Each structure stands twice: as C-alpha cells, then as structure tokens.
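G., the chain you wanted modeled:
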Amino acid sequence: MLRSPIARTGTLKPARVKKCAICREKFVPRSTWAKVCGSECAAAHIVAERRRRIAKEVKQAKIDRMDKNDWIAAVQKVFNAYIRERDRDQPCICCGKYFDEKDTLTGGQWDAGHYLSRGSAGHLRFVENNVHKQLKGHNRPGGTTRAQFRAGMIERIGLAAVEALEADQAPRHYTIDDLKAMKAEYTAKLKNLKETA
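Predicted structure as tokens:
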C-alpha cells in the first residue's frame, strides 16, 4: 500500500500563498514554479513574457548596431545628467542665480554647460572641470558671454585650473569599448550621487 507524504514524514508544509503575476490576486499554487492563478492569466502571462523577450531582443539589436557617434551621444547624455546632479546645490556657473527647488534638473531649467564648447574643443567634452550646471537660457546662442562663464569658472575651480583647461590640446581618441566603460562609470557615479542626496 502506498503511503501519503503525511504518513511518511508526519508533517506536510502548507502550500504557500502567492500573488498572481497578471491579476495580482492571491492564490494557492499547485507547484512551486506556478506564477499565475489560472488558464486565463496563464495565456496573458505567455503573451507578456513574449513581449518582454522581443523588447529585450530589439534593445540588444539596437545596442549591437550602435556606431561610435551613437556611443558618444549615449555617454554625453549620462555625463550631462551626472554634472547636473553633481552641481545640484550650486548656482548657475554664469550668473550665480539659484532657482526654485521645484525645478527639475532634467528637462527643466538646467543644462550641463561646457566652458570650452564641444564644437570648438571636442576633446574636452568629457572633462569634468570643463562642464558645470548652467541655466538653459545661458547655454543658448546669445545667452551669456564667455567672460561671464570664465569669471564663474575662476570662482569655482580657480584661475590655474581654468588656464590649464584653456591650454589643454591633448587629443582624446575613444574606442567604442572606452565609451562603453565611460557610460558604465558615469551611470554608477550618477546612481551613487542620487542615493546620497
């Protein structure tokens, strides 16, 4: 005669209640790997998993197709976000004004302004001393003068550092692997700053 698990061990753990991955209702699973409560939710779960897998494959395909310019743009985006977060409590580098705390640092009042612009000094685009939080209006043509920006730079980092930036003509040639590493580095730095803020 076959014995039940209860008869053999004397105990049987009660089934653990789970939440359905689709409808979020509580249910008692038939097996430990069950994620959904019934057949309707199972069908919806299969469709959702397929969509997630396709989205992941599309994202990876886009990453695989990225060329050097795409990687530079990706690094620039996270680098600029890092600069805005780093200078969160600083005033505008050009005019020294603060804005309302409710203003966001992304898509709001602030840019990551390059003292020596990316167009004229592309080799300094990722040099942290060259980039500071700046009001969007000042970071547009006609927004501010180089003298105002330079005065703010001297006040913030000192005359010697500003002159070193102005004299820096060292070429910086980034490979795609360098850019991937920089993106990871600045993503981690940005995350750390947001966690400590």
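The two ends are 67 Å apart (CA to CA).

Shout if anything looks off.
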